[in-house]
Queue: 3 jobs
Job 1
Amino acid sequence: MDALAPIVPAPVVLAPAGTPWPANRPRPHDALPEALHAQPEPLGLYLQGLSLADAAAALAQWRAGPHWFRPAHVDPGSPVPDLADGAAPWEEALRVAQHADAIARSLTLDPGALRFDERLLYYLYLREPAELAPVRDRNAKYLYRYPIVEALEQAQEDSGAWLGALVRRNLLQPSTLVDRTRHCRHCASAHLHFLDVCPHCSSIEIHKGASLHCFACGHVAPEADFHGDLGLVCPKCNAHLRHIGVDYDRPLTQFACARCHHAFIEAAVIVRCLDCSAEDDPSALDVREVSVLRLSPHGRAALRAGQLQESFAVLETSNHVVPNFFRRMLDWALATQGRHKELRFGLVLIEFLNATALIDAQGATRTFLMLDELARRLRELLRSSDLTTRTSEQVLWVFLPFSSGEGFAARVRRALDEAQTPEGARLEARLAWVQAPEELQGNVDADALMARLQRWDTE
Amino acid sequence: MLQELSATFFTLFGAIGETGWLDVALKFFPFALVVELPLYLLVLLGVVRYGLRQRQPYRQREAYPSVSCVITCYSEGEDVRKTIASLAWQEYPGFIEIIPIVDGAVQNAATYAAARRAAADVRGVPRRRVLVVPKWQRGGRVSALNTGLQFATGEVVMALDGDTSFDNDMVRQATRHFDDPNVVGVAGCLRVRNAAASLAARLQALEYLLSIGAGKTGLSEFNIVNNISGAFGVFRTAFVRHLGGWDAGTAEDLDITMRIKQYFGRHPGLRIVFEPHAVGHTDAPDTFAGFFRQRLRWEGDLFYVFIRKYRFNLRPGLLGWRNFLFVMLTGLFHQLVMPFVIVVYTGVLLWALPLGAALGILAFVYVFYLAALVIYFLAYLLSVSERPREDAATVPYLPLYPLFAFAARLHSAYAVVSEMFLKSHLDSSMAPWWVLRRTKF
């Protein structure tokens, strides 16, 4: 039977030994390595009749292996582990696996050579319109985890920060808001507990007690003051209070602090972090939104165009235009300037020198977080009338009508200096600029001007 | 009749020329001369003395004591926010604790919510704290004040109304008197916030101005302030605690004033001061019917406090001679007896004389009162008023005022009778009936 390896590619099947299988299906195996040996190019994984623990273990292995991106299903009726695509009958699983395979082939990416963020997008792309659902987990530091994201991590990447960056870069987008969590400001843990304390001295030794109101003399005091030998007796007028509503009433309850004897109506609330013991005001906590995430159109396009490798996509701001348009605009400005000298502008070149080296040295996460930060600052520096373009992955151009290229370059330099990792690794960039018309000689066109800047070593 | 009226009127005027005004006055309104004139002259003298004293140089404050403002709230609704805000934004370097007590917070959920919103607005303001206390069970004003006293931490405690808002220098003006360790209470000056609402409100504004603004300023000079208004009273907290807080029953303001005064005989140095420049703005009833209903309670309360409650305490040994005489003269005679004298006098006049002649005499009395009123008003305007321009605008209503006061006096005779025979103090909006019936008086 072993010789009967399926001619058509199909998912590998794992099942407990002795499980019968129909003739049109590949033979089931009871361990993944063995199955992959028999069927080295599977379209997916199909788990039949496995216990939840066995299924989860097999899936963890699967997602960590070379076929991590391929669909994995369990047979209907079995419990569905976090990392599975769902429960489906064999035909359905086969169809989904073939579909995913077709999409994977349509992309030019090599799944084995992808970085973490790309793996995640790739995974979602194969399963469109799949979404990343957060799972509530009382043991997780942030209360919610995305199991798939964790499974796709390779090194010790901080998946939380990664997801944040992917959303900021608009590659992922939130679809449904699931929850709002509060986090300690010091350690970000969501394991907090709330304490009511005395608003005066913050002691937790507070007690609630009722006050009584004596109708005969109008005296209002804590109930304890009224307890005499004969029952309730007003401490002020000695009236014997026999009947509630007739002699007295209980108009309010209040707190009293055992430490400072302060009386109050509402206790103050503080929050204590279970992980780092920091105490804080509840309003000072970090509030985060937990959402179901899905691939954004932008992320889909980037993946299709294979542009994910482009580490500097984040620098594409709202002022971004394609290079041809940028050149055309520059030509137009230069031509207009020939007759109207008052049309001044600056042209700035930013060339990143060590981005690739940084990714190797610092890891992609940190480098991209740094770039993220730089992009945010750059957006702040740009006016709505400025234009940017990129002529290669690491070369960014900025066209600044009616403002100084030198001043802009100085501000970019400062932003670059501040955007560095805690270890002090920095993004190195070469800045060059030209001011038109002051620094122009004779007739130049856009190409000539840009070529000149790229040759120049202004700094 | 008109002829008779003018004849009588001018004859009386002629008589002043011939026999002197004292003779005429003694003949036609002897009671006024014996009781009211000395009182008015005393107040006038006090007002003038106050005005002269104001010329003394400014004295640096010794201390800014911490203040607890107990606000009794009932169904004021959003108005409570005005009150709380006006206290939170006082120009005062000391600590102010604002304690709105919502009586019957179950029925008055809207007021409670408004107070909590106001408290939220004030959160974080330095040296201010708002403590909203919901009194779920309605127990009346006194229980609310005593509840507030339980929470008050300030050296000075203020008893304030939820529908009264305050000028931003109120706390500064009111607390400066406590530099003097003998001062145990300060009465604040009330003005009518809704004066423009109607003629009734306008006339009451004038009345507040004359009887509180001017009247109490004058009385304060001689330490005989008649009453620390319930809507705006300021006390030394320790002294109020010593008194055992506010006492059950209606007219808790007059009651506590009387109980403070009962220390005056033994401690002649103690003082109750009226501060005309500590100003609160309150709502007065804007219809005459509402006004008379309110007065029915107030005037009745005088009988309740002076006769029912404290008739055995009206002794010079307790009150000191000065306040004893003053209470006898104003509290008993002027407020409780005079209304009947006026009713009888007017009745006899109308019965014995032809209508025209009677009206002529009343017209003459009217002119006499108006003249006195103008002098009184001018003295107030020149030496006391902190808003002279605004107050001057009420001059056109002065001619109506003697008629208004006359009607109020007649009505107070009715109020006293009603209290005497019907115990109308047991039917008061100040506390629910099941609480009032348990009081001892």
Job 2
Amino acid sequence: MEKISITLDVNGKLCELMVAPNDTLLEVLRDDLDLTGSKESCGEGVCGSCTVHIDGKPVRSCLTLALEAEGSKIKTVEGLANGDQLTDLQRSFINHGAVQCGFCTPGMLMSADALLNENPDPDRTEVKKALAGNICRCTGYAKIIEAVVHANHPHEGCPDCVPYRRSERKGEE
Amino acid sequence: MSDYAIIGKRMPRVDSRTKVMGKAKFTADLKLPGMLVGKILRSPLAHARILSIDTTKAESLPGVKAVVTGKDTEGVKWGVFAYTRDQQFIQTEKVRYIGDEVAGVAAVDEETALKALDLIDVEYEELPAVFEPMEAMASDTELIHEDFPNNINIHVNIDTGNVDENFAKAHYIREDTFVAAEESYFQAEPYAVVARFDHEECLEIWCPNGGPHMKSKPLSNAFKIPLHKVKVRKIAIGGAFGGRSEICPADYICALLAKKTNHPVKIVFTREENTIATRQGHSMITTHKTGVDENGQVLARETTCYMDGGAYSSTGPIATSVPFLSMEQAYRMGSVRYNGYRVYTNKPIRGMIRVHGRCFAAGLDIQLDLIAEQLGLDPVEMRLRNSRQPGEYTSTKSYVGSCAMDETIQKAAETSNWKEKFGKLPAYHGIGIGTNSVQTGFPMGIRGGSQSFIKFNEDGQATVMSGVVDNGQGNDNMLVQIAAEELGLLPKDIHLVSADTETTSSDPGSYSQVSTFVGGQAVMIAAKNCRKKLFDVASKILKVEPDTLVAKNRMIFVADDPEKSISIKKVVRVSLLNFNSVNAEGGYWPKVDMKREWVKNPYGQMCEAFSFGTTIVEVKVDPETGQVDVLNATACQDVGKALNPLVLEGQFEGSIAMGGQGGMLTEYHEWKDGRCLNSTMLDYKVPLACDMPEITNIIVESIDPKGPYGAKEAGMSIAMSAAQAYAAAVSNAIGVHMDSFPLTPDKILAAIKEKKAQETQAETAAMGKVN
């Protein structure tokens, strides 16, 4: 298939690319831009592992053509942290044990990040709803939900929220 | 002793930082120079003879670098045991299920590889196929494997004697049959493999695995190269749940293509391939006959189980035994007779799965509830009267050292307010209990032990080598925690080299729940040995006896006089200046009965420790839709010792999701003539965040005498008992004891309808009498 020249704005960088009209955004991110954080798990828009942001909204990059994303701001899991500086959400995932095998984690983070940008203090029901399109097979979701609910607002009763856990965390962070 | 610095703490996992940054590399993320794309041609027929394969058109397609068929394989076969080697990596004569490997292609890109698959011409002679175990055993058409009469692949017979005599003494006997459909793993990561042969003709391979050493040996056999030339590399793994324990034909095909093309090759499975062509859970038909005395104590049990094994043996002897073993560990059975039949059918291959035996276990527990009802006993009391006690032997003669089964039952019952709820809930509300026990290891013969090497570097930090693999459950963190604890370092001072067959010694792998017990213990022993070397040097510097020293927080100091101290870094440097390296090894081999064999001699010490778990769930059933709303779940397991409660809770919660919520309510496969109709994530319903109940975790620590820090299997007893608790709770809610799993709305509605019809009939009959 004939390739077309496009420019994608990914994680704040402009990338000039030659893509086939049927290349998905996920393929271009993974194969052409080496951004392999976004995963393909189902390939049919069900599991959410390929979730990225397009203009701040969470979308399935496996169902999005690369061509459609031109002119938009794309953000992938690699674009969450500022260098080595993790976001509160990423830190919350680590500290709450929300990561097991880690394959669904990038998609979970992108869905959760989009939620927190719209609603910085979601309750459990809101988090469950926002993550209903992201499948995790390891965790039973409990720690993921907790990590999102506590991301911006550490809870005093929670043993895994960092400000309340100084004694054990010496040398860890 | 509870003053550990790191063990027992809620330590966030060492591997999570790279995972939340999207930096962790999984197999499909790998890119090697000159890498080709591999694809596999699979059988479209359930049972057929291969008459001819013509690959000429495919080979001449521009961009195709190699095509391999069974002819290139020298007929090598795979089987976990010498007596179960029945699966060729690429079929030469027959295909036995829709998805069987027929050929492999390597090409410059995916499009070309897929086109090449279409150009391979295979001529088949279709054979009659069988899709159900009972039908397969009775079939008089061509056998699936000619050496196995009646298509019976494995028959496990366990008989402790006196079964009939004890049935004769029983106060009450009942016999019930339970069935369950197949289920699948749906690991987040679809199976993938990358292989290449390097300049020294070593095979280098990356793939999800349940134990790298379990991959290297069959590959060494298949390619007839020494073990040291097979380098299974470490890679992040996106879940296993028992489905990635064995060699996969794709591993061999990928390596063969790499060899033939002299290029690295990558094969990534589609979601459908991951469902069809890796492993699935067995479907089962289980009949339990149980006789009890007037107190509800089981005197005798006879269980017969037919398991649909699919087209090949896989872990057949283990799979046929484990559902029974889990229950004989959990409960005293009196005298017992077990006949397990694993039957070949023309369906995908079945292996071990996290909730292996949901039908078996849920059936046994539901039957206990039925017996309890008959005797007027509470289900919790019924379990306490039959629960395993420490110091006992199981029916198959395994000694049970640590066991807090009763405590898990009691604590789960207390926390869930069982007494206030059972029998007192509103209509269509229910509560149910399940208990289970899981092996900490299987008899693994020569690969049953694990060894670790530790070396200190001159900066005072350490490198730890271990064959243990992390499928996602947190084994890497477990090893680091143990090493840091013993060496007196911080977790970030430990560099872990693991799951790589070039640099690590043999290890049993993670799929028999033995990583902490054996692999972790090996690291613990190596670290203790290493610490001893540090203490020998430090004691001379500090002018004290070595046994007065402790190591913590990068320092070595006198226990009673902490001011007297020296940094570990300094001790390492002094040692090196005195021409002594600071490194050590350590190994652990579980003391199991090496004569125990799954089929020939299923008696003797199975493993050194068993975990015990209880789950209680409360549900609300909508009688109009059959939908189950799970209100809460209580998960309570005797884990020996919780090395890291944060990680452990995650195992419990994941177990409730896969074992109960998915395993008992939504997960099963549908078929048409051997073709799986729901192989994708769209069609196969796994639990979502919004489906999950609130989960209360209760950790019970029995401190196993043999386990590292007292630890043993952690989490699997919850996965298994969750299935039982869900089944019991739904049964309790609708007042019908369910016998066909999973409990989908159609079955629940049918049961409610039938019950109503019976009640109406009974009422009519009663009115008739009055009149």
Job 3
Amino acid sequence: MDLRLIIGRLLLAIGLLLVAAAWLAPTTIRTQLYGTNLNLAWGIVLIASGSLFIFTARKS
Amino acid sequence: MPIIELHWIDYAILATYFAFVLGIGFQLRRKMRSAEDYLLSGRAIPAWIAGLAFLSANLGAQEVMGMAASGAKYGIATSHFYWVGAVPAMVFVGVFMMPFYYGSRARSVPEYLKLRFDEKTRAFNAITFALMTVMSSGISLYAMGLLLASLLGWNFDASIGLAALVVLIYIFLGGLTSAIYNEVLQFFLICAGFFPLVLVGLSNVGGWSGLVTQLEKVAVSKGYVAGAYTHAWTQMSNPSANPMGIEWFGMAMGLGFVLSFGYWCTDFLVVQRAMAADSMLAARKTPLIAAIPKMFFPALVILPGMIAIAISSQANGLFQLPVKPDGSLNYDMTIPLMLQAFFPAGMLGLGLTALMASFMSGMAGNVTAFNTVWTYDIYQAYLKPNQSDGHYLTVGRLATVFGIAASWAAAYAAVKFNNIMDLLQLVFAFVNAPLFATFLLGMFWARASANGAFFGLLSGTIAASLHHGLSLPMGSQPGLKGAWLATQAIYPSEMAQNFWTAIWAFTTCFLVTVAVSLVTKPKPAAELAGLVYAYTEMPKDPPNLPWYQKPATLGALILIAVTLLNILFW
């Protein structure tokens, strides 16, 4: 069992949920960081990180 | 503090995490074929996983929330717990001590003590350690139940019942490997959950320069010089000049040497992760790999506390830290307040998941250390020796159930006894500080005898009790805080009292061990091979190993980096 795959999948799943939250959650002042939607920005970061883990696990 | 309303997306994130945690347990279930697989991970864990688990085993939520609280209370000087009180000891255990732990093939720290000294020293350590882990795990559970009840309005009994059940399932099925894998997941969740919190918080106070300006005002308003919250060392010449109330010698000797080395080099909870590594080289690299993120962790867990106190001190700040019944600020609420103030639905779920993950991993770390010590050092050693491996595998699983049940009971004991946490801290200081002297002499002085070690350990613990019984932190009443015999010394803070208790315990244990060893018979040299420096061939690095993988080089680079961090925030 490759732990990188598990980490990658977890980050990917949470990232996708955050991207969904960017559309679904109520818009408030707290959702913004430097003019960017925090859920969307961080969701994309987690999706990218998760994908990277999955890619490195599959590559080896 | 108002109750936080969670959105369904927050619950979805929490449920996703639980599904992964339980999934790991079910996946590993079939690989647990022997007691060694279950209790020692079959000594098959790669260095990077063991390293992150070594770090995360110490990252329980009390640590995460406690460090943020200390960041708010003491400022950047809290980083000493990392840069002075952890990283140097982690380098030491990796470079110098792991060859003995791993090379001796001992299955636990108490078993090493048996091989090096004798049964009575092992029994003393095994029993105190088993009790400490169960209490510590119970308090982790209690703290989680309390937080969820006050923050989310969840039912206390249901919260701790659910968390205990999840931890029970994944450890029962996958043993130490399952705990280690989940600790690594927890590490990434804490980074993912807290890093954006720091970014948003810093942006709110005007970046690093805005934070420094605000904290200078806080320091002056409390009677310190402007840099007391933003400089780690400049105010350490005088205990009354810094919020911690400690001077540089107490800091360097008490925290940096005795408490730090006592914990990182001898506590089986963390050492177990390195002993599960797949080779001697991996075991030596485990604490070194852990030390790299460890030195940057103040940015994730201490900085939020500093940001919180800066915001809280503003007249029109986004939030105010709540006040306790005695009128003092409730610093423990720092992280929950920050999450509530800055995170929208979605991110809030991620932040809470990170907190719950650290609570559960803290508990799992204790339970896996407990089941190993119980099975090998108490049950196999004294109750039923010479049974089949399958028998000890079953006992290991039953010890997991018992450990969780005892933790659950300890959580309810904590509800009834307000001071149980103080008591636990005290027991830690009494047990760990003298233990380091025993290990230091045991590993590096072949003359140290079994009687010397036992009586040294005993007298170190008694010295710690006496020092505590005769001293008191300023403003406290005699009792659990100290001076239960007489008030002979007053310390500026509890921390100063703890550091000096540790110094007394270590010094007494060291001197008594040396004195008794000199008049008693040591073990013959033939029995000390692999256990003592003089009779052990230190492992040589493979010939083609890249420089950055060599433990000594890696250790030296880490020490240089941590020195630079100290200078940068001097």
